[in-house]
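Lesson 9: reading folded outputs for more than one chain in a single document. The general rule is that every protein is listed as its sequence immediately followed by its structure tokens, and records are never interleaved. Here is the first one.
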Amino acid sequence: MAKVLVRSSPGREPVPFLRGILIRSLQDAGMRFEESYALSNLIRNRLSKGKDDLEVSEREIRKMVEESLAVGYDPEILTHYRNIMPVRNVILVKRDDGQIIPFSRTTHQKRLEPCGLDPENAAEVTAEVYAKLLAQRRQTYTLDQIREITQEQLEKRIGLQVSERYRAWSRFIHSGRPLLVLLGGAPGCGKSTVAAALASHLDIVRTQSSDMLREVMRMMIPKKLLPALHTSSFTAWKKLPLEHHQEPRNVALINGYLTQAELLSVALEGAIQRTLQERVSMILEGVHIHPDLLRKISNPGDAIIVTVMLGVLNADELRARFKGRGKGAPDRRSRRYLEEFDAIWDLQSFLLSEADRSGVPIIRNDDREEAVRQSMQVIIEQIVKDLTHEQKKSTK
């Protein structure tokens, strides 16, 4: 199919015909999406039916559209379309692979948030970048030019540190390197909720929970063979051999947890190695994300691995969360969590102590949005650290 280039006015650089822009104009005129899509396809096919690339003016395309609307469509749609001025403020971005796409303010803003900006500041910086692009009176920019202008605006408005985070995040996105986020914490601390939010902000499509892996293993291994696997992390000690029951309860609790975590380590390592081999990013969350898991990862390659431990440091807050589960999701057995609350609290104390001992960042999850923001900041800082280290190695 021949390439169609559109010139909006004499002297301006022609750009590829973008069907999405025409669809949006037709919808603005009152046409349903299905009809807009079909007519836009018809116009594109009519323009590109030849073998050679074609250059047409914006006026010629509008004439073709108006002629098509005059036949078989509501006359009001044609009237509305004629009253719509050609889109002059469309900024186009030329990607590294040569493809040209419209500049998306939503995507740009989303790329800023992992750097530690709240949505309001990210939106304001994106608006300033867009205004800067329009002021330069160019229609097409490269990704590098967009990044350079964004860095300038970030440094000017927020500061050098955030600007450097953005630069590192942009470099990482286009490096092809996988990102592995290990998110641990006791039951009830909000791991799955934070993991879902991080996946959305960081554009990570693969997430996995240790609870799901545990369920798979339970289906494969009988309860009589591994009883410690077929119970909760905070009651696993009750399934240990009788000699462990003579130990102090805190000691027995931790031994039970570590036994279950060790049983699951094979599945966790398998999930990690698979994602590293496929070079895709993943968030792995669960109570079984023990700091020692990092030591078992072999051949990480060029992956960037970040471990974060979540915690709810107020006992009343954590207890209230379990009560809330009972109202919204009775199948989560909130009563059992409340009955075993002391064990869960002790397990959290152990996990936080181990994280502190291992240098794993601990993030309080009293406020979900703040916990997500801090988690993203930890991730970006690790990316900056890794990329800086690699750059120093390459210059030696």
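And here is the second record, again sequence then tokens.
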Amino acid sequence: MTAACILDGGFDLAESPVWSVAEQALWFVDINARALHRFDPVTLSHEHWAMPAAIGCIALARDGGMVAALRDGLYRFDPANGRHQLLAAAPYDRTLMRFNDGRCDRQGRFWAGTMTDDRRPNGALYRLIGTRFHEEKLPGPIATSNGLAWSPDGRVMYHADTPAMQVHAYDYDIATAGLSNKRLFLDLRAKGERPDGATVDGAGNYWLALYGAGKVAQFSASGERLREIQLPVKAPTMPCFGGPDLRTLFITTARQKHTDEELAQMPLAGGIFSIRVDVPGLPEALFTSA
């Protein structure tokens, strides 16, 4: 299975793709370029908004607009008027760290992980409660928080640390957002595969971008590798489901840190890709502040 490029944007670090069911459009960010993007795969309309700081991830909001995790904090952003409203200041040293991967749980609570610029294991995972962050104390160090996703019933949370090449699963209390029973879900060290962003389909399969390996892999809920989607670029960053029937898998990729020789061999690096799949995904949960 090979994905096709639908937007040759040359994005430096495209991430956090989110499909809007209401708009039938794909939202995503370019972290390094400090930009938010919206793409309509039918009309090929492409818009973008400049952000005041590096933007790690987004989630669409139930009452309109979206939540955006910038380096200096979590904001509500309204693309219609370009206004930013600070919800919570970043609870870390902003000269050394930024938000990375994040999304809402099935109940609409926003979670976002962090990473340090030098990739030291000082990252953390936070969730937003009202207008303040709560740090979730995960066992063991985190260098680059990634791979965040929930099972269809919301009772299992997946989380990866990219340099560790491992994905863990947790029991998730949907009433309290509490985590327990950490266990190893995927150990990718034997193949040297680096887990990046992820999503879960309607059957509970976990789809994971393998940064540097040029593919997205589908795993069953028991951790069995079911299939791989190849890309003509080496750095996929995150998949998401979209389209009218949620059977189109969109994949963001990166162009950062490629040599001139690599860019000559992979001219579509930093593009947005898609492929049709058999099992549909689930609508992305919308942020709710209640």
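What the second record shows: The chain is about 0% helix and 50% strand.
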